[in-house]
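hey can u run this one w/ S-adenosylmethionine bound, need the structure tokens asap thx
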Amino acid sequence: MGNSRGIAMETLLTWEKAQAPLDQVLETTISGLSMDDPRDKQLVMALVYGVVRWQGYLDGIIQQFSSHPLTKMKPLTLVALRVGLYQLIFLDRMPESAAINETVQALKSARQPKWLTGFVNGMLRAMARQRATLPAADEGAAVLSHPAWLVQRWYDLFGPERTRRICWINNTLPPLVVRVNTLRISTDDFIILLQENGIGCERGLFAQDGVRINDFQGPVTALPGYGEGFFVVQDEAAQLVSQLLAPFVSGRYLDGCAGLGGKTLHLAQLLPEGGRVVAVEPSRKRQAMLKDNLRRLGGPEIEIHGETLQVFGAQRHAGFAGVLVDAPCSGLGVIRRQPDIRWQRSLASLQGYQERQRELLAAAAGLVEKRGVLVYATCSIDPMENDEVLAAFIKEHSEFVITPAQEYLPEAARSLCDGQGFFKSTPEQGLDGFFAARMVKNG
Ligand SMILES: C[S@@+](CC[C@H](N)C(=O)[O-])C[C@H]1O[C@@H](n2cnc3c(N)ncnc32)[C@H](O)[C@@H]1O
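ok here u go:
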């Protein structure tokens, strides 16, 4: 399927089949393409992310026009209808004829039978004719475009008002936020550098080294200072999590689930002379990306271990002054950045995450030295992965006490903590939804 619509459809079909993260699937489908015009790539991305974000809403409309249940449709037919309808509703500058003809042409190029191309063509034309009467994207269930189980869960947990607000924000485009690598450049100088290059930006509202970049369309690698390692893309909420390991002393700190190293280097940045960071990351692919990031960002040498935190913990490594467990989680707090997450989770998957999180915290407990700090974090807003994990941990580990997170955060961020002293940011504050608990080991 040669054109941008065809590539978008192919990506969406692969994503549905593979149940893999959308950004990974998209990277694979577009990395090998030789598209002369960069706008073609942008269109593919806009279509793919837009369709996934609004899938529930689009499907509601398609169902109104179809006499067959959507579950009986061929996957390619449904994907073509979603891609076509998305253009009709959301891409204001796209002429109606181009939206329909190019979508149908992509099916023809893929040698789809006449009945299928005819059906998609007819449906899209019918929807275009009745465009003025289609339900708006801000009405009823259409706003939500989230799976029913999740909406029900959030209604029960947060009430209808908050649920609608969170769902609505999840469907908006997230801001580009970076953390300045102050080992290389000061935040003030980085802001000046961006402004000199005509890039609008402002200081973060909550985190001291956070910078919000406005109206920048290109890839982050094209921002000034990328090659020099002046910044790393990181939401302000994630930046605040590392700060909870304060007060920083010149001891050893463990990033127990380092991933690509967003928080690993931040810790190195925060430590005084003589402090050292050790990182654990079992995924080989992520480890390689972590090493690349650390090379780009520079800074002190960081010891990296490729085993799981459970294995690392069982090897009885010497005590750490601070341990961060930024646990694998559902990601329900970052749907705005990864719209596919909502369709790939279930209540059962939350239970699965909780089990892993409890194991990871238990493994971390033994690694913390006396009076050391343990921080548990997720990018989820679901209590099953947050408050419940913490309650179970504290019950089994009475040597740990919860200390109020607000005492370790900048003034502006203190209001993000709840009565129990947990840090809880949500998309409503313009932040990624994070949970973090700070504990100290007494025994
Ligand atoms: C939420 S991500 C970490 C994000 C990272 N801290 C950052 O700020 O970019 C969780 C990471 O935990 C890793 N992980 C999964 N199982 C693990 C285990 N048993 N022990 C340690 N890390 C694990 C995953 O590979 C993933 O990279």
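The radius of gyration is 24 Å. anyway lmk if its weird
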